[in-house]
Write a structure and sequence with these properties.
The protein is an alpha/beta fold and about 600 residues long. It is built from 20 helices and 20 strands. The chain has three domains: about 65-155 and about 295-335, Periplasmic binding protein-like II (D-Maltodextrin-Binding Protein, domain 2), CATH 3.40.190; about 155-295, Periplasmic binding protein-like II (D-Maltodextrin-Binding Protein, domain 2); about 375-585, 3-Layer(aba) Sandwich (Rossmann fold). About 40% of the residues lie in helices and about 20% in strands. The strands form five sheets. A six-stranded mixed β-sheet has the order 15-14-13-18-19-20, with helices on both faces. A five-stranded mixed β-sheet has the order 2-3-1-4-12. Strands 5, 6, 9, 10 and 11 form a five-stranded mixed β-sheet that branches. Strand 16 and strand 17 (about 455) form a beta hairpin. The longest helix has 29 residues, at about 30-60. The radius of gyration is 37 Å and the shape is elongated. The N and C termini lie far apart (about 115 Å). Residues about 1-30 and about 50-60 have low confidence and may be disordered.
């Protein structure tokens, strides 16, 4: 084949026969002029590429190996953080020539807190679900845990019910903490609790449960509902659910005629609805406002390199891509702003609810103690006055004093949990032989225990319904009280609140044939009472003679850290039993 000429394109250059010496053509423009600047551009590009390579590798220098960052987060936010960590790890973030490798483990905040309290940190960075958990941990001077350094997300704590029940609920309960308290108050059986069943998250295991308690307690104090709050807490202690998943699932299960209502974080509602489209639940935003889970970041490592890695990962959590991941899983940002997952069409309120004031460390610690004490078991011996004056009629009623007091006792019995230990003694004079002023009607023991084929609770109710006053009997209170107090002190149980309850018409001690005098009785109680093993005396008196004995009743009660109450009518008994329960929360230092 012949050779193709290309000199008309390349100025005489021959592709296959290079000239021994290039020809110089000054007059014509050609490739020579193009190659010079092109060569410069290529050189510049190479230099820029090298510079970029150097800069890139300086920022992503893994020559020193990997720098592990262990993150422990609560189960609700762990999936989102794990996804963000995956993206972060791929970007090769370098700290002192070591590339950070983030792992995110899931663990309940209470368990992590216990581990940290024991001085066995299993994480470099802790993401709890709430500052409440961190505050409670930091309240112990022996626990060296740093303050949180920011928040990664928020999720308001809301009331929640099944979507199918929302319309029915609207007529019985308005979304509010005060409404929830009224519905849960065990001492208000005629209130909204007739139509609503309230479920609670265990506050000792779940921060949303503790936040709900604190929000409800704050609202109750503001509205003067202190006694109602105690009644609600007592009821809720028996309606606890361990985790949000179980609580939300139970809301859609039909059980009786009452509409179930619970508390949960807004984010958990989103997750539930995403997984169970056929069993939807809806959030109800409390009218007073609410507290939110705030997912604080706590750097618990003391290693300098790990601290730098934690600071770098924390910056990553504020990026737009990280925020999108969190919002996509139902969280709001620290500013309360949510994403499309919290739209109105999905049953949420895009506008964040009003924030209640954040409780301080002292308030959180107090609520934790209150809950723990309220849930201690009950052990109570009731002394029932059956003296002759108890047969007198109660004005404006069809009852005798005996019947009214028995009704009071039956009312009170319904406020105690099934595992409570309760018994009753009757007292007057010479009830069990000459000189013995008391008689055991039902021994102290578990309400669920069977005695001769009958449950103790049923036996108590039967005895109260049939008890009769001794027409010729006087009021041998002091001798009875000494015997009962001695028995309760001797059989004291550390894991229970030990109480001696006196139900009387308030005539005080009236024993013509002798026995302990009032001063001797007080001296005995002051000598016997042990604040480390407290047995408190509560007195509820009913009848026109009650005020006459108030001074002595107060003295007897206060000698043991107890209280004496005078009921103007039978219905007041509910309040008095609740006030008695309130004393449990502060005993043995209720009066400072």
């Amino acid at each position: 084949m012949g050779r193709h000429r290309t000199d008309e394109f390349d100025g005489g250059y021959r592709a296959q026969e290079p000239s021994p010496a290039p020809r110089r053509r000054a007059a014509r423009g050609g490739r020579g002029r193009v190659l010079v600047p092109l060569a410069g551009a290529v050189a510049l590009a190479v230099l820029l590429g090298v510079a970029a390579f150097v800069i890139f590798n300086r920022e992503h220098d893994c020559s020193g190996g990997k720098l592990p960052l262990r993150v422990v987060a609560t189960p609700d936010i762990q999936p989102a953080l794990n996804k963000i960590a995956g993206t972060y790890n791929k970007a090769l973030h370098s700290i002192d020539s070591r590339c950070v490798e983030v792992t995110v483990a899931k663990e309940a905040a209470s368990r992590t807190a216990n581990t940290l309290a024991a001085g066995k940190a299993n994480a470099d960075l802790w993401v709890a679900d709430s500052s409440l958990a961190v505050s409670n941990l930091r309240s112990d001077p022996a626990t060296a845990v740093p303050e949180p350094s920011g928040s990664v997300a928020t999720s308001p704590v809301v009331l929640v019910t099944a979507k199918s029940s929302a319309a029915k609920l609207a007529g019985s309960l308005q979304p509010s903490w005060s409404g929830l308290i009224a519905a849960a108050n065990v001492a208000n059986p005629d209130g909204p609790g007739k139509k609503v069943r309230v479920l609670a998250l265990d506050p000792q295991k779940n921060s949303a449960g503790m936040a709900a308690l604190l929000a409800a307690a704050g609202s109750a104090k503001e509205a003067g509902q202190d006694k109602a709050l105690v009644g609600a807490l007592k009821e809720l202690s028996g309606q606890l659910v361990s985790d949000p998943t179980a609580l939300l699932a139970s809301l859609t299960v039909k059980s009786g005629s009452k509409v179930p209502v619970g508390v949960a974080s807004e984010q958990s509602v989103h997750v539930h609805n995403s997984k169970k489209p056929d069993a939807q639940v809806v959030p109800l935003y409390p009218a007073e406002g609410t507290l939110s889970l705030d997912y604080p970041l706590v750097v618990v490592t003391k290693d300098a390199a790990a601290q730098k890695a934690a600071a770098d990962f924390k910056r990553e959590l504020t990026t737009e891509s990280a925020v999108r991941v969190l919002q996509g899983q139902g969280f709001r940002g620290p500013d309360g702003k949510g994403g499309d997952t919290l739209s109105k069409s999905k049953g949420f309120n895009p506008t964040p609810p009003e924030a209640l004031p954040a409780p301080d460390v002292k308030t959180v610690a107090s609520m934790t103690q209150t809950w723990s004490r309220l849930n201690l078991g009950s052990r109570m011996l009731t002394l029932l006055d059956v003296s002759g004056t108890m047969a007198l009629p109660v004005p404006s009623t069809n009852m005798t004093r005996m019947q009214a007091i028995a009704k009071i006792a039956t009312e009170g019995l319904g406020l105690f949990a099934a595992d409570s230990e309760i018994g009753i003694w009757a007292f007057s004079t010479h009830l069990d032989g000459q000189g013995k002023d008391w008689r055991e009607m039902v021994s102290v023991g578990p309400l669920t225990e069977t005695i001769d084929g009958t449950l103790r609770k049923d036996m108590l109710i039967k005895e109260l319904a049939t008890v009769q006053a001794k027409a010729t009997g006087d009021t041998g209170l002091n001798d009875t009280l000494k015997a009962a107090y001695t028995e309760m002190t001797k059989s004291y149980q550390q894991d229970k609140i030990n109480t001696l309850l006196i139900l009387t018409d308030g005539a005080g001690n009236d024993d013509p044939q002798g026995g302990l005098g009032n001063e001797q009785m007080l001296e005995f109680l002051k000598k016997t009472y042990n604040p480390k093993r407290p047995v408190s005396i509560l007195i509820i008196a009913f009848g026109p003679d009650a005020p006459k004995g108030k001074t002595q009743m107060d003295a007897l009660a206060k000698a043991t850290g107890g209280e004496a109450y005078i009921a103007k009518d039978v219905l007041q008994v509910r309040d008095f039993f609740l006030q008695g329960m309130e004393r449990r929360l502060c005993a043995p230092k209720c009066d400072g």
